[in-house]
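Lab notebook, bench 4. The sequencing result for the construct came back, and we need a structural model before the next group meeting so we can plan mutations. Quick request posted to the team channel:

Model the 3D structure of this chain.
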Amino acid sequence: MKTQEAIAENGLRPLFFRPPVGISNPRLKSVLHRENLQAVSFSCRAYDRGNKDITNLAERLMKKIRPGDIILLHDIAPDKKKDLQIWTDEIEIFFKTLSERELQVVPLKQLTGLEEMTLAAETGEQMKP
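Done. Here's the predicted structure in token form:
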């Protein structure tokens, strides 16, 4: 798993894996077991097409969100430079509205009871010199 190796080079080892688009298959369980990973998915998303459809992003999320949801937000910038400010504004609106509704963002560990990462050295993986 190249992603795992790249992250281990920086001294960390993730303990969770989110299947792309949330899609799984029967073989995933054995691969995750071999890699000592837990699968985690989202329960709420805005269908933003990877930040290509950001209009009213905050409003779309707030219509769906419930306490305990795991929200899918993409960490890539919108394709068009002009959309970056719109996306930033939508994210600010989203977090402000969460606060107004007394909803909190919490670490995955709080939802699952499991650590999210460990030091790569603790698992015997190589770290950068």
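DSSP finds five helices and six strands in the chain.
Will bring this to the meeting.
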